[in-house]
Amino acid sequence: MKVLLVFAHPEPRSLNGALRDVAIRELEAQGHEVRVSDLYAEKWKSEVDRSDFPSISADTQFKPSRASKAAFTTDTLTQDVTAEHEKLLWADTLILQFPLWWYTMPAILKGWVDRVYAYGFAYGVGEHNDTYWGDRFGEGTLKGKRAMLIVTTGGWQEHYSARGVNGPIEDLLFPINHGILYYPGYDVLPPFVAYRVDRIDQAGFADVAERLRERMRTLATTPPIPYRQQNGGDYLIPSLQLRPDLVNPGDRGFALHVNRQGAAE
Ligand code: FAD
């Protein structure tokens, strides 16, 4: 397999740095090819602004989506962005690795998504009309590839459980797993989460490292989260609501978009 690991931690000697090395060593031991986008080390520019689109004249109002579409169509995206496109198209598996910061990814990684996910590459793909709403949520440029998150948290596993004060981890990660990875077509594997890591000892580290090695060994065979495909018949178009007959009265929230029944069949 060809694996792209996008790494978002400012310190190579961090726990995240150590876990990244564990993951890479195990993947390479399994014969996989690994490339890394180390966002802090590469001083990734995280904010979308006018300088991303030098062909826009100074007196034109800057509209990010429109500019992105024009630059993608005319092949004038900046070199740092097109280099990431090349890596994403090369890889058959994408891993995003980050510490949970304020319940989500660090800003630099969000900025990688904002800039790399260009119009025409990650969104605005396929026909858009009243009966077909584009190739997305299970379809799109990255269909057929796998993706997963490696996340560390200060909070305990219980804090992220169904009744935990932080909210369930699958809900917190839903906007990334579903909105960022499933959207352009990835099959999304369950995340690897290491909880309560701030004062982890050597034994705890050894345990986390072994769990991570196991996830790397099973990257190709782990069943993805069974999200419902937008164009698979479960949603009404153009309202994009889940068909009422697929919902139990009172059901709501992110879990609706996971087809547990289909997964069990
Ligand atoms: P490090 O600080 O590098 O390491 C943690 C511990 O791991 C070290 O103290 C050490 O004991 C051990 N360790 C490190 N390297 C090794 C090694 N090679 N071998 C053995 N042991 C090692 N947490 C939440 O749960 N929810 C949040 O919303 C949240 N928001 C945050 C926001 C910010 C801005 C920050 C800074 C932190 C936040 N945290 C939050 C906590 C954060 O998620 C954790 O601090 C982070 O996940 C720890 O990962 P790290 O790589 O930075 O760990």
TrEMBL record:
A cellular-component GO term for this protein: cytosol
InterPro entries in alphabetical order: Flavodoxin_fold, Flavoprotein-like_sf, NAD(P)H_dehydrogenase_qn
Stretches assigned to the Flavodoxin-like fold domain: 1-215
GO molecular function terms noted in the UniProt entry: NAD(P)H dehydrogenase (quinone) activity
Organism superkingdom: Bacteria
Keyword terms: Oxidoreductase
PANTHER family: NAD P H OXIDOREDUCTASE-RELATED (PTHR10204), NAD(P)H DEHYDROGENASE [QUINONE] 1 ISOFORM 1 (PTHR10204:SF34)
Family label: Belongs to the NAD(P)H dehydrogenase (quinone) family.
Name this polypeptide is given: Flavodoxin family protein
